Amino acid sequence: MTVYNFNAGPAILPPTVLSQAQEELRDFAGTGISVMETSHRSKEFEAINNEVEARFKALLGIESGYRVLLLQGGASTQFAMIPLNFLAADAVADYIVTGVWAEKARDEAQKIGKVHIAADTAADKHNRIPTQAELQFSENPAYVHLTTNNTIYGTQWQTIPETNGVPIVADMSSDIFSRPFDASKFGLVYAGAQKNLGPSGVTVVLIREDWLDKGAKNVPTMLRYSTHAKNNSLYNTPPTFGVYMLNLVLGWIQEQGGLAGMAEYNTRKANIVYNTIDNSGGFYRGHAVADSRSQMNVTFNLPNQELEKQFLAETKAQGMLGLPGHRSVGGVRASIYNAMSIEGVEALASFMAHFAAKHG
Ligand code: PMP
């Protein structure tokens, strides 16, 4: 049976990357040992570490002005680390609240400093992205925080909003490198690797170089971005295997035509599933309103919970894994990250059409 992995994260990885990792597992770069057994100070690991930053920048088309840091503690640690470093006592940070992860980022910032809510879609069960006109920024915010893709609700910013020159801090955990983005709008971008970039355990941070000096000085060493920048992300022992996997995934993205290639592929895949929802005569109801739909997480409901249970049981029996919606919203969520194949979404769409015809 072919298995299709629709898990939200940790999630599907490119099969060729897994094969390469398997081949190299017992003997990395001719060393006779595994990359997991190699010192993070070895020249072999340092080469990987440097290649990650180089590939990351190459994919974004930037040469200078930014650093790529490989940290630990997940995106959740970034929720605190960002305001600890960049939300001074006399400043305000603006937060756009579009889901549970954005709420968590806001909550952490509120523990540390003054927060202004520029928009909040909670009243609409986070089924949409706010319009530009809805965004009410404060006078002179230190930064504007947003979540580019809301993993749980299946909504995604279609374009990055205008902030009148105020640097954006973005949680891109669930859509990083699924499409191109213009780095110059961002002071800092962060993502847990476990959806589009690799296994869990590595958190990738893209940070503007002039922000490294701006960070608060009274912050503990490990929680300062400048510590990691100065030490090339080798201040302490990094999650070496995760960094190695991240490097292979970045190489794979380059082979797919870079971010533009990924975007085209992801649009094709998402359209297949959304068309199936839209052509089901109301049998499937998408959670996200049409103009806020995510290309990464497709969320929908069936006419009742009985049918949802049956749908999830039958898809699982057919090898389609990870489809139950997040525990907070229920229903179905198909996570179709970069590494998901067209065949995978076609298998799902075909099952959906048959199921609707039978039970609709
Ligand atoms: N932000 C987003 C958008 C997420 O999807 C997740 C995890 N699902 C997180 C943050 C939390 O990430 P982590 O578990 O790496 O702390």
Notable characteristics:
360 residues; alpha/beta; Aspartate Aminotransferase, domain 2; Aspartate Aminotransferase, domain 1; 2 domains; 7-stranded mixed beta sheet; 37% helix; 16% strand; globular; binds 4'-deoxy-4'-aminopyridoxal-5'-phosphate
How would you sum up this structure, described in words?
This protein is of the alpha/beta class. The chain has helices at 15-24, 43-60, 74-86, 100-112, 209-214, 225-230, 240-255, 258-278, 305-317, 342-359, and strands at 4-5, 66-71, 92-97, 114-120, 144-147, 149-150, 155-156, 168-171, 186-192, 203-208, 285-286, 297-301, 320-321, 332-335. A hairpin with a 4-residue loop joins strand 6 and strand 7. The model has no long low-confidence stretch (mean pLDDT 97). It folds into two domains: 15-255, Type I PLP-dependent aspartate aminotransferase-like (Major domain) (Aspartate Aminotransferase, domain 2); 258-359, Aspartate Aminotransferase, domain 1, CATH 3.90.1150.10. 45% of the residues are buried. 37% of the residues lie in helices and 16% in strands. Strands 2-10-9-8-5-3-4 form a seven-stranded mixed beta sheet, with helices on both faces. It is globular and about 60 Å long. Bound molecules: 4'-deoxy-4'-aminopyridoxal-5'-phosphate (PMP). Homodimer. L-glutamate binds at residue 41. GO terms for molecular function: O-phospho-L-serine:2-oxoglutarate aminotransferase activity; pyridoxal phosphate binding.
